[in-house]
Design a protein that fits this description.
heterodimer; A: 264 residues; mainly alpha; MetI-like fold; B: 257 residues; alpha/beta; six-stranded mixed β-sheet; four-stranded antiparallel β-sheet
């Protein structure tokens, strides 16, 4: 006897529940909980991590990311305005920079700045030491992505806004600064926050630059801890530290998107 | 016409008309939207431009303050040639108020900020003076109590009146209206028209693209009927509306009246 559509959908749903339960059972039964506890969630090692994992590693991750994001935001805005310029060379330059740093893996950018630059120009030095180099590298990577986001945001502001500003006698740049860009930033706040989450994770690549003990960020901290303890617990701890930063940020993004959705 | 006249906005030889459009052509690619327009607006005059959609009347208005760049022809505003490549267009626009169909208030600013921003940044007025001017103009359009509201919390009619007050806060020599009531619910049209009527009574020079025949008849000093990129007929509103001379005018009026 053929099933009705609704019945078939119901059976299919039950089948999925059963499948998920079965998978969970396999995991629970197959895992060696004693080893897991000892190697991944060792209470003694967890206790040893605090408070330094927060006051040193988490703090450094936040500082590196914040500096890189701030520089990237300024760079992204500049590149977006250049991209929209009526002057050809500005557009070409910004397109080149955007495509280059969007196309390269972040690791390659870090290697280029941290290892390549000092060899190519031994007489020069990137100011600000490790933090300066990290800011530059993270900013270039993030800025290239943010430029395209901001450009889309500027173009999403209705043309009438720009025209109204010009009609009131504002110059092109005054109209952009006072009227168009503030509205564009409202539009792109959710994707920019996503970019901040991505940069938080990209900051783990800073280890390439070689860090002193008090400069360890989360990933480096976790790796060093893992090696010295011969135990994976430190990695689990820093993993949670990343989530402490990123999960609230994604909740903020979801709220903003919901709000923007209602406003429309 | 010399460039010094253009930059200082001083009335030159042709001081008779507030707006003088001569042989204006506008192409959008292959499409010729305006095919040789001659229109004059005298100081203190209210000129209403009517015509079917696509006739080029909005484009004509947008050419007057160079939101659209004319392909051929010359336009003088208060004796200054707008179409002169050396003209200081920002200074000229700051003296030419424009009101749009879609209001175009700045949504991230309060009503008061909307009215003050260009006074501060373009006219370089101080904070107190600009607020005073803004409040005076808000009172004029009957919205004094809305100064700290954001545009999104106002009705369409209120937004349009704020837009008029914003333009007036720059103390313009003339006002351009681009279908100011076309995006409004019918019951809100009256308030906006009343504000425009008051403005006309004060002697403001106005060029109004509109579908409001009642307003044109009552307030307009001159009616310009455009169709297919040309001025078909112009004259006293009462005369054109009741006794149109051209077949195209008759056909249009029979549809809208």
């Amino acid at each position: 006897m053929p099933l009705t559509k609704r019945k078939r959908a119901a059976y299919l749903r039950y089948a999925q529940y059963v499948l998920i339960l079965a998978l969970a059972a396999v995991v629970v039964l197959a895992a060696d909980w004693g080893v897991l506890r000892d190697k991944f969630f060792n209470p003694d090692i967890i206790r040893d991590q605090f408070p330094d994992v927060l006051t040193v590693a988490l703090k450094n991750t936040v500082v590196f990311t914040a500096c890189g994001f701030a520089f990237g935001l300024a760079l992204g805005l500049g590149l977006a305005l250049m991209r929209l310029s009526s002057v050809g060379p500005w557009r070409w330059l910004s397109t080149g920079v955007i495509e280059l740093f969007r196309g390269l893996p972040a690791l390659v950018v870090f290697l280029a700045l941290g290892v390549g630059f000092p060899r190519a120009f031994p007489q020069y030095e990137i100011p600000g030491g490790q933090l300066g180099t990290a800011t530059l590298a993270l900013g270039l990577v993030g800025g290239a992505y943010m430029a395209e986001t901001i450009r889309a945001g500027i173009q999403a502001v209705p043309k009438g806004q720009y025209e109204a500003a010009r009609t009131l006698g504002m110059s092109h740049s005054r109209a952009m600064v006072s009227v168009v860009v503030p509205q564009a930033f409202r539009i792109v706040l959710p994707p920019l926050t996503n970019e901040l989450i991505l940069l938080t994770k990209d900051s783990s690549l800073i280890y390439i630059l070689g860090l002193s003990l008090d400069q360890y960020e989360l990933t480096k901290w976790g790796r060093e801890g893992m090696n010295s303890e011969a135990n994976l617990t430190p990695i689990i701890v820093v993993g949670f530290c990343y989530l402490i930063i990123t999960v609230p940020l994604s909740i903020v993004v979801r709220r903003m998107e919901a709000k923007a959705g209602r406003a429309r | 016409m010399t460039t010094t006249d253009a930059t200082q906005g001083a009335p030159a030889a042709r001081d008779a008309a507030a707006i003088d459009v001569q042989d204006l052509h506008k192409h959008f690619g292959e499409n010729e939207v305006l095919k040789g327009i001659d229109v004059q607006v005298a100081r203190g005059e209210v000129v209403c431009v009517i015509g079917p959609s696509g006739s080029g009347k909005s484009t004509l208005l947008r050419c007057v303050n160079l939101l659209e760049v004319p392909t051929i022809g010359r336009i003088f505003v208060e004796g200054v040639e707008v179409t002169d490549p050396d003209v200081d267009i920002d200074a000229l626009r700051s003296r030419t108020g424009m009101v749009f169909q879609q209001f175009n208030l700045f949504p991230h600013m309060t009503v008061l900020q909307n009215l003050c921003i260009s006074q501060r940044k373009v006219r370089k007025r101080g904070k107190e003076e600009s607020v005073e001017v803004a409040r005076r103009n808000l009172a004029k359009v009957g919205l004094a109590e809305k100064e700290s509201a954001y545009p999104a919390h106002l009705s369409g009619g209120q937004q349009q009146r704020v837009a008029i007050a914003r333009a007036l806060s720059m103390d313009p020599d003339m006002m351009l209206f681009d279908e100011p009531t076309s995006a409004l619910d019918p019951e809100l049209v009256g308030d906006v028209l009343a504000v425009m009527k008051d403005l006309a009574a004060e002697g403001m020079t106005m060029m109004v693209v509109t579908h409001e025949m009642g307003f044109a008849r009552e307030v307009g000093d001159k009616l310009v009927f455009m169709d297919d990129g040309v001025v078909v007929e112009e004259g006293l509103p009462s005369v054109v509306l009741s006794d149109p001379q051209h077949e195209r005018t008759r056909a249009f009026l029979s549809k809208v009246l």
